[in-house]
């Protein structure tokens, strides 16, 4: 709450998010959370400026003479704003009710770099309209200080709310609308076209979003100077089920600066989509294609073109991936730090061996539900990946306590070990705990505690 850059609206901050006719609205007192409404609708309300004189019954002047100016009121505005920046939002709300000067200071744009709205019933479109209108009073039609908008889980968000953001927030750098399934491509296109500094975009769970691109008007206008480029570096499209290779191709062509891309459960993506991605986006550091069942070893051959730039890769439950794909990645991506290959049943000890010998700086590995990985694979890990901190072997049927002991004896920095549903003895678990003091062991052995 004391972070100036993370001032939020999840609690009433002087813009109150109150259900109509709620007790919090009737008695004029702010609360730390939004209460439920009888009608089920929550709207944004903005305080009217309080009178200049102090009228609140709980406020007492330090001086005996009420007409004397309080010491704090002698501070200049910039000092007051600095003090307000350390207050939690509910206290900032109370300060806004003291007097007209404090009301104006509480609405200083520097205190509102971030807007965060939560709740399934909130009328988020109206809330965004009211808030941006108030923040635009000093700079008509634009909120020059607003950089982050987080409205994740607000299911009533529609294209209208995103249009408001696009038109009023040209300096926007981060937008999260995960779980807002009513928004469409057109609204997203408007945001990325009118907010040229946008770097972080989370549209996970927005099932109607099939692409990220500029509007036609923006494309025509910007093409000669910018080559139709979008400045997004972080893009999360998890659970965008209708995203296809064609849409991924368009994203790659427009978002060439991508460094973090998450396509979890985008089930229509294939190896061809990854081929197009690697043509344009050569700076990707983190990539997730978990549960993309059409991704195979050929797709990983394309991913391997990222070479030493790739640090994080998730291919969990990609059933068509085998040792061949892992060899491609291990051969060319020697600086890989994290690999999630859970549920890739085609991976064996040979794939783990090649990975361990080529990616020696590996810190986290998940090979759970890989029944062909045994103690032999663990031995290669233990003898090559000394920096390993997290290891998941959940449901690996061929793993025994002997393999765990080899790992524990060589990877002293191990912090997390998952051996749930593995046939390992209590003695082996105790051996791990004795050699890896900070290791948290997740297990299903009732005899070990």
Element layout with pairings:
Layout: E1 15-18, H1 23-26, E2 43-46, H2 77-84, H3 89-95, H4 100-106, E3 114-116, H5 124-135, E4 148-150, H6 159-168, E5 174-176, H7 185-194, E6 200-202, H8 216-226, E7 234-236, H9 245-254, E8 260-262, H10 271-280, E9 286-288, H11 297-303, E10 312-314, H12 323-332, E11 338-340, H13 349-358, E12 364-366, H14 375-384, E13 390-392, H15 401-410, E14 416-418, H16 426-435, E15 440-442
Parallel strand pairs: 3-4, 4-5, 5-6, 6-7, 7-8, 8-9, 9-10, 10-11, 11-12, 12-13, 13-14, 14-15
Antiparallel strand pairs: 1-2
Helix pairs in contact: 5-6, 6-7, 9-10, 10-11, 11-12, 12-13, 13-14, 14-15, 15-16
Main β-sheet description: 13 strands, parallel
What is the tally of helical segments? 16
CATH topology (level 3) name of the domain at 75-111: Monooxygenase
Contiguous uncertain segments of 5+ residues: 1-46, 61-65
CATH architecture of the domain at 75-111: Up-down Bundle
The end-to-end span amounts to 38 Å
**Average pLDDT metric:** 83
Strand content: 5-15%
Helix content range: 25-40%
Write up this protein.
- This protein has 449 residues and is an alpha/beta fold.
- The protein has a domain at 75-111: Monooxygenase (Up-down Bundle), CATH 1.20.1280.
- The chain has 16 helices and 15 strands.
- It has helices at residues 23-26, 77-84, 89-95, 100-106, 124-135, 159-168, 185-194, 216-226, 245-254, 271-280, 297-303, 323-332, 349-358, 375-384, 401-410, 426-435, and strands spanning 15-18, 43-46, 114-116, 148-150, 174-176, 200-202, 234-236, 260-262, 286-288, 312-314, 338-340, 364-366, 390-392, 416-418, 440-442.
- The strands form two sheets. It has a 13-stranded parallel sheet with strand order 3-4-5-6-7-8-9-10-11-12-13-14-15, with no helix packed on it. The chain has a two-stranded antiparallel sheet with strand order 1-2.
- The longest helix is centred in the N-terminal third of the chain and has 12 residues, at 124-135.
- The protein is globular, with a radius of gyration of 27 Å.
């Amino acid at each position: 709450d004391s972070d100036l850059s993370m001032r939020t609206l999840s609690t009433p901050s002087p813009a109150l998010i109150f259900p109509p006719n709620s007790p919090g609205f009737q008695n004029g007192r702010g609360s730390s959370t939004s209460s439920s409404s009888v009608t089920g609708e929550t709207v944004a309300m903005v305080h009217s400026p309080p009178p200049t004189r102090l009228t609140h019954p709980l406020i007492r002047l330090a001086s005996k003479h009420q007409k004397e100016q309080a010491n704090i009121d002698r501070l200049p505005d910039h000092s007051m704003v600095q003090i307000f920046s350390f207050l939690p939002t509910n206290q900032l709300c109370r300060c806004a009710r003291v007097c007209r000067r404090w009301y104006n200071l509480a609405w200083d744009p520097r205190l509102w770099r971030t807007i965060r709205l939560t709740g399934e019933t909130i009328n988020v479109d109206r809330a965004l309209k009211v808030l941006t209108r108030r923040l635009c009073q000093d700079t008509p039609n634009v909120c020059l200080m607003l950089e982050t908008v987080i409205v994740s889980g607000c299911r009533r968000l529609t294209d209208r709310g995103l249009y408001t953001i696009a038109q009023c927030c040209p300096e926007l750098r981060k937008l999260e609308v995960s779980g807002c399934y009513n928004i469409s491509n057109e609204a997203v296109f408007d945001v990325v076209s009118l907010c040229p500094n946008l770097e972080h975009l989370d549209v996970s769970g927005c099932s109607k979003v099939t692409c990220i691109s500029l509007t036609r008007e923006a494309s025509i206008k910007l093409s000669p100077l910018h080559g139709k480029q979008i400045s997004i570096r972080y893009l999360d499209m998890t659970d965008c089920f209708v995203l296809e290779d064609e849409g991924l191709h368009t994203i790659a062509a427009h978002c060439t600066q991508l460094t973090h891309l998450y396509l979890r459960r985008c089930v229509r993506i294939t190896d061809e989509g990854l081929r197009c991605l690697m043509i344009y986006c050569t700076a990707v550091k983190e990539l997730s294609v978990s549960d993309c069942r059409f991704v195979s070893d050929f797709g990983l051959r394309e991913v391997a073109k990222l070479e030493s730039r790739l640090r994080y890769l998730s291919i969990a439950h990609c059933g068509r991936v085998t040792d061949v794909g892992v060899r491609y990645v291990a051969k060319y991506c020697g600086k890989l730090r994290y690999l999630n290959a859970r549920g890739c049943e085609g991976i064996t000890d040979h794939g783990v061996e090649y990975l361990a010998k080529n990616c020696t700086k590996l810190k986290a590995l998940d090979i759970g539900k890989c029944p062909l990985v045994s103690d032999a694979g663990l031995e290669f890990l233990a003898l090559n990946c000394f920096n390993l901190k997290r290891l998941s072997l959940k449901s690996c049927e061929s793993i025994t306590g002997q393999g765990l002991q080899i790992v524990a004896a060589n990877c002293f920095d191990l912090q997390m070990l998952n051996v749930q549903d593995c046939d390992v003895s209590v003695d082996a678990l105790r051996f791990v705990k004795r050699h890896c003091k900070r290791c948290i062991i997740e297990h299903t052995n009732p005899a070990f505690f």
